[in-house]
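Researcher: Structure prediction, please.
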Amino acid sequence: MSTSLVTTLSEADLIELKSAKQKMEDISWAMKGLNRIGGVLETGIDKLPKKQQKWLQELAHKVLHTVVKANLKTMNKAKTNAAPSNRTYKALVTSSGIVGGAFGATAFALDLTVATKFMMRSIMDIARSEGEDLSSYDTQLACLQVLALGGKSKHDDNLDTGYYATRVALSSAVKNAAAYASKHGVGGVLQGSNNALLKLIGAVASRFSIQVSEKFVAQAIPVIGAAGGGSINLAFINHFQHMAKAHFTIRRLERQYGEVMVKGAYESIQLN
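Model: Predicted structure follows.
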C-alpha cells in the first residue's frame, strides 16, 4: 500500500493498533501474579538496602550484556513470518523459575540470566513473525528495547513510561548503537567498556531493573517455593511477550503507513 495515497489506516489495521495500545497501556495485569504473591511488592522494593538495590541494577545490566552476546547473533533468521513459539518459551522460562524458586534468592542471578535469555529469544521470535529481518541491526536493537517497556509502577516515577515516550527517550542511544553495530558488528559489544551498544544496554537496564527488583522481592519470600517461582516467571514472560507483540505490530504498521501517521492514530485512540 503506497503511503503517498493513504491518509488513514484501514479499519482492520486500526483494530490491530487499538489492540497494541491496549497491551501497552493495560500492562499491569501481566504482573498481577507477582502482586498476589505475598502482597509485599509495593513496599518491598523500597525496603531493600541501598547496596542490594545497586546490586540488582548492576545485575540487570550484566544479564542484558550476556543476553545480547548469546542471542542476537544466533537466532535462526530463515523462518520469516513463522508463527512465534510463545508456549515453548513460556514453558522454558517457567521451568527456570521452578528451579529458582526451589533454591530461593540464592539462585536468583542464575534464574534471571536463563529466563531473560529465553525471553529475548521469544521477543526475537515475535519480531520475526511480524515481518522483521533479524539480520538487521535495527531489528536487533528494537528487540532489546522491548525490555525497557516495563510499564507503570510507583517505582518508576522518574521515568516517562508511555510507549512513544520510551522510544523517544532511547532514540539517541539506539541511533548511536545502530551506527556502532554497523561499523563493528554486534560482536563489538565484547570490546571496550564505553561503546554505544553498552550505553544502550545501560539505558534499557535502568528500566528493566524495576521489573527485576519486583521479581527479586517476590522470589525472596521464604515460602515461595518452586511453584511460586514458576508462577513469577510465567507472569514475567507473559508481560514481555505482550509488549513485544504490541511493539512489533506498531513497527509493522509504521513500515506500511509511516511513523507519523501511526503515532497520530495511536495517540488518538481512546481506550475503555
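Model: The chain has one domain: 9-268.
Researcher: Thanks, that helps.
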